[in-house]
């Protein structure tokens, strides 16, 4: 009778949960295998015993929909063993399932007379099986999952006050291998009602990231496992870098790697690639959006990659698709000629229409015509045009070496890049001129015949350009020793002469020139011979003079080459040893872009024009100032280019009153950034140089610098996410290293983070002024012989030792800086070396000490940091190797579970803290770890700094730990431990103090240390 009373009393609670059982919309990363609330009709689960145990009951929810529940309340009878088993549940592709149970439970204390038999827990079991027709419950087949207890139990008072106390418990089961499983509930004497049972597994739902689609992916079997998924590009897109993501055990996608780009002719809209509309085009996959067809062009279909030109308009083969279609130019205007004997000067003005292009040029066509001007033919060779005949950029040309008394027609053609595409008549302007009388050209060939002791016969050819009728020739001759101080003249109307009255066995020099009505031409080159001897031209005729000149020049060149080879060989011998210490050799491969230093340009503005795009200031809208830079203000704003959507940008401005050097240094950063194109390098949008203020426009990074971002989000990221951040930075630095660019100032403050948590390397200024932060830089001096030059400022805490000492910056020194950035990331923006001075940092590094692992830092990551901090730069990894190492860590997250940096032992007699050694043996890696703290000696004494370094050789012991001696002066108490200045340790002081007490219980009460520990 009492049992019936309790059952009736318990039945009163069945109505209570109806107040809270509202319909739920489950998250997209959960897949429900069973939900008892959604089952239509009776559940008909198997109960044992079939009578007197679990009982199926219907209740009504808030929508008056019946819900089937099970209840049991046999609290008066001892040794209850009531089982309830679900139907067979297929697991699908799940390896781990989650069981969500909602139930109410009666407080045993509120029931009289049941203290020995009433329970407030029940047991949850499961049984894997491929058989979906199991009829009976075999208890030995089931495996226990957990004992379930209620967070809240109800009493008779709660029933009277209509208070609902519904409990929800979730348990998980894995690894499942059979096709399905059964779930069972064991009652051992509780008063309980199972309101609902839901069984689910988790998946990473279908999603689109960076235009790559990632399918529904069931999570792994382990709670910490990651499933690598390769995405497929959405329709009408192509891979830029293989898209990958990792599905976490919680059903959440981690940071994506790689991306896809819309094909030409398509643009991104809401994660899809849609065809460009008619009248628009997209030529390259790297363009942002579809652009409107340029002037004088059109597209007649969707998805166009270029626009066709209107009739009468053209594009050259080198014109980009974004350039308007253009026309050939009209004819030049106002042609003027000026004849000077056998030379003509022509001048003209530009055409009325250039055709809309900037590559206007002129061609000069020369024709020699008959006296009536009716019959013309090309002039042929022998005429000289200055500066040139074809491709003229100026509107002036000089034509020389024309024939005298000859009619010439000159045509000036205006051409541009599309003149060849045009089928219409070309436009030209012409003029006819007649040359005047002119002096003849020089005689080129002289021969000596019939040489005797006192005479010689000379003969020569007519000048190549007589420029009229030759009236006579003049022969000048003299003894070679007289050197023209005493010479004779002989004139003749023929092309030969007999010279008599010469001295025997004497060398003579002869010159010949011709005369027309316009006057004498120039003398020929000297011709030399000796009387009563076979002619032996020492200087000879014009042809021999040329041969001699070439011979002399060749001899001089050979002599210079010999001298150069001798000097180089001497230098190589002298500096062969020094070459061993030179920068690491770079092997350049075909097709690899190489960084070009803008300061190698004679005109630095040329570098800006070549590598940076000029932007019209009207396209930029400055919204607010977000910082102050070295050269001026840094602002956020918006950029709206014609035919493109508006984007957010960062704007660096050059302050008023700048010098030429400041302007050059300011724009040099744009010249550098403009050469880079990588997803982990800050992107340059363009520059404004044609008006004030001068501006550099870059993409806007919403989350600012990485160090500030990490400090703001301390502890919020998983290790995998931190490794993903480091992988992005390493990928950007690999790109820079492959281009032979050395950053020199790699630090977390110079890494920017966008809204998608993508990190990008920034700050490429060649001139960095650090005087405003004296603690972040240290000035070095270079001394060469007796010459001493003031060095620049160096960020000591991030810089490799060889760069500090010798100013030797290489990709290997960037690797050292990257190791410091790794430490900053894992420590969430801590300051490297804390409050140590720069001098102490330099000294510690030289003595072989390195930063310890940050809190919860995986050993594998700290090992990579130590590799980056190798003293010998040749032993440091390359950035390509770092990227591969981080990819392996991402693919194998179990390698990130073992962490270092925990206190392994506390030893009172020598007051030493021990830290785990690196995995590499002591002989291979003499690395040392250190830590810096601040403690108070007493309440009245001010803070003092200490950081005592102990060589590993003196402190290493058989257990394989490094130790650090702490020179305490007084009692080590909770007050001391509560006042660590290191912010990370300060936040974790309770944990740190607990570790101390774990090794030496009651340390604050029982132990004090000597004033001068050994």
Automatic annotation (TrEMBL):
Protein kinase domain segment(s): 620-890
Signal peptide interval: 1-22
Molecular function per GO: ATP binding; transmembrane-ephrin receptor activity
Positions annotated as active site in the UniProt record: 745
Domain Fibronectin type-III: 328-438, 439-534
UniProt binding sites for ATP: 626-634, 652
Recorded catalytic activity of this chain's protein: L-tyrosyl-[protein] + ATP = O-phospho-L-tyrosyl-[protein] + ADP + H(+)
Residues of the Eph LBD domain: 30-209
Main location: membrane
Biological process (GO), any one: axon guidance
Membrane topology: Single-pass type I membrane protein
InterPro entries recorded: Eph_TM, EphA4_rcpt_lig-bd, Ephrin_rcpt_lig-bd_dom, Ephrin_rcpt_TKs, FN3_dom, FN3_sf, Galactose-bd-like_sf, Growth_fac_rcpt_cys_sf
Compartments (UniProt record): Cell membrane; Early endosome
EC numbers: 2.7.10.1
EC top class, as a word: transferase
GO cellular component: dendrite; early endosome; plasma membrane
Highest taxon listed in the record's lineage: Eukaryota
The protein, known as: receptor protein-tyrosine kinase
């Amino acid at each position: 009778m009492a049992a019936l009373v309790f059952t009736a009393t318990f039945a009163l609670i069945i109505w209570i949960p109806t107040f809270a059982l509202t319909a739920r919309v489950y998250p997209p990363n959960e897949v429900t295998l069973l939900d008892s609330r959604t089952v239509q009709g009776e559940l008909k689960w198997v109960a044992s015993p079939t009578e007197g145990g679990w009982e199926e009951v219907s209740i009504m929810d808030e929508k008056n929909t019946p819900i089937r529940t099970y209840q049991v309340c046999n609290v008066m009878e001892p040794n209850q063993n009531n089982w309830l088993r679900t139907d067979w549940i297929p697991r699908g592709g799940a390896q781990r399932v989650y069981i969500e149970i909602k139930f109410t439970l009666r407080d045993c204390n509120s029931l009289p007379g049941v203290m020995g038999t009433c329970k407030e827990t029940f047991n949850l079991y499961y049984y894997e099986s491929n058989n979906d027709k199991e009829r009976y419950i075999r208890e030995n087949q089931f495996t226990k999952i957990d004992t379930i207890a209620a967070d809240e139990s109800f009493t008779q008072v709660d029933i009277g006050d209509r208070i609902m106390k519904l409990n929800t418990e979730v348990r998980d089961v894995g690894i499942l291998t059979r096709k399905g499983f059964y779930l069972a509930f064991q009652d051992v004497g509780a008063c309980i009602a199972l309101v609902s049972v839901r069984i689910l597994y988790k998946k990473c739902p279908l999603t689109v990231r960076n235009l790559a689609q990632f399918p529904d992916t069931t999570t792994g079997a382990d709670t910490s496992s990651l499933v690598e998924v390769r995405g497929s590009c959405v329709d009408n897109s192509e891979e830029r870098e293989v898209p990958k993501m990792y599905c976490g055990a919680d059903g959440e996608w981690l940071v994506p790697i790689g991306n896809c780009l819309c094909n030409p002719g398509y643009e991104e809209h809401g994660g899809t690639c849609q065809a460009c509309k008619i009248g628009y085009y997209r030529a390259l996959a790297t363009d942002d959006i579809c652009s409107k067809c340029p002037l004088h062009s059109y597209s007649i279909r969707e998805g166009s990659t270029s626009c066709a030109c209107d009739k009468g308009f053209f594009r050259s083969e080198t014109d980009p698709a974004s350039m308007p279609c253009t026309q050939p130019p009209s004819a030049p205007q106002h042609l003027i000629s000026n004849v000077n004997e056998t030379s003509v000067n022509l001048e003209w003005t530009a055409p009325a229409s250039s055709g809309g292009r900037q590559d206007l040029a002129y061609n000069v066509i020369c024709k020699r015509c008959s006296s009536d001007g009716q019959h013309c033919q090309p002039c042929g060779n022998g005429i000289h045009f200055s500066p040139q005949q074809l491709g003229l950029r100026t509107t002036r040309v000089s034509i020389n070496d024309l024939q005298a008394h000859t009619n010439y027609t000159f045509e000036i053609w205006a051409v541009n890049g599309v003149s060849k595409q045009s089928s219409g008549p070309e436009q030209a302007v012409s003029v006819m001129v007649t040359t005047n009388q002119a002096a003849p050209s020089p005689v080129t060939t002289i021969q000596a015949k019939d040489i005797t002791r006192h005479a010689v016969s000379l003969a020569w050819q007519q000048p190549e350009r007589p420029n009229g009728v030759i009236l006579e020739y003049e022969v000048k001759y003299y003894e070679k020793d007289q050197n023209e101080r005493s010479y004779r003249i002989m004139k003749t109307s023929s092309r030969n002469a007999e010279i008599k009255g010469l001295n025997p066995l004497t060398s003579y020099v002869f010159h010949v020139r011709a005369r027309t009505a316009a006057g004498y031409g120039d003398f020929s080159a000297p011709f030399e011979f000796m009387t009563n001897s076979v002619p032996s031209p020492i200087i000879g005729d014009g042809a021999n003079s040329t041969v001699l000149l070439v011979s002399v020049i060749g001899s001089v060149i050979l002599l210079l080459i010999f001298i150069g080879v001798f000097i180089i060989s001497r230098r190589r011998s002298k500096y062969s040893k020094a070459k061993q210490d030179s920068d690491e050799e770079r092997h350049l491969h075909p097709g690899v872009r190489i960084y070009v230093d803008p300061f190698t340009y004679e005109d630095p503005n040329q570098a800006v024009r070549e590598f940076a795009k000029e932007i019209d200031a009207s396209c930029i809208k400055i919204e607010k100032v977000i910082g102050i830079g070295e050269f001026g203000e840094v602002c956020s704003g918006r950029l709206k280019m014609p035919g493109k959507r508006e984007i957010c940008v960062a704007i660096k401005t050059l302050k008023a009153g700048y010098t030429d050097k400041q302007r050059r240094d300011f724009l040099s950063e744009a010249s550098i950034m403009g050469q880079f194109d990588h997803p982990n390098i800050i992107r340059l949008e363009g520059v404004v140089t044609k008006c004030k203020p001068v501006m550099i426009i870059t993409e806007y990074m919403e989350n600012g610098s990485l160090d500030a971002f990490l400090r703001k989000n301390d502890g919020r990221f998983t290790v995998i996410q931190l490794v993903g951040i480091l992988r992005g930075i390493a990928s950007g630095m690999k790109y820079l290293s492959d281009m032979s660019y050395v950053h020199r100032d790699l630090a977390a403050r110079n890494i920017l983070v966008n809204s998608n948590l993508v990190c990008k390397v920034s700050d490429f200024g060649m001139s960095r002024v650090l005087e405003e932060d004296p603690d972040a830089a240290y000035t070095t001096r270079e001394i060469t012989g007796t010459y001493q030059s003031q060095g620049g400022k160096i960020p000591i805490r991030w810089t490799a030792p060889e760069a500090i000492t010798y100013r030797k910056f290489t990709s290997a020194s960037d690797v050292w800086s990257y190791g410091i950035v790794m430490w900053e990331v894992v420590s969430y923006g801590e300051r490297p070396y804390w409050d140590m001075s720069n001098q102490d940092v330099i000294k510690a590094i030289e003595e072989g000490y390195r930063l310890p692992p940050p809190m919860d830092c995986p050993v594998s990551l700290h090992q990579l940091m130590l590799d980056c901090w190798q003293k010998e730069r040749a032993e440091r990894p390359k950035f390509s190797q770092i990227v591969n190492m981080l990819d392996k860590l991402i693919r194998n997250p179990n390698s990130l579970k073992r962490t270092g940096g925990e206190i392994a032992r506390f030893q009172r007699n020598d007051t030493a803290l021990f830290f785990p050694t690196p995995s590499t043996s002591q002989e291979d890696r003499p690395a040392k770890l250190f830590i810096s703290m601040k403690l108070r000696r007493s309440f009245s004494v001010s803070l003092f700094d200490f950081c005592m370094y102990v060589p590993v050789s003196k402190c290493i012991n058989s257990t394989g730990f490094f130790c650090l001696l702490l020179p305490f002066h007084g009692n080590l108490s909770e007050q001391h431990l509560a006042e660590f200045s290191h912010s990370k340790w300060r936040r974790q002081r309770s944990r740190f103090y607990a570790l101390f007490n774990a090794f030496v219980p009651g340390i604050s009460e029982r132990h004090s240390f000597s004033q001068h520990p050994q």
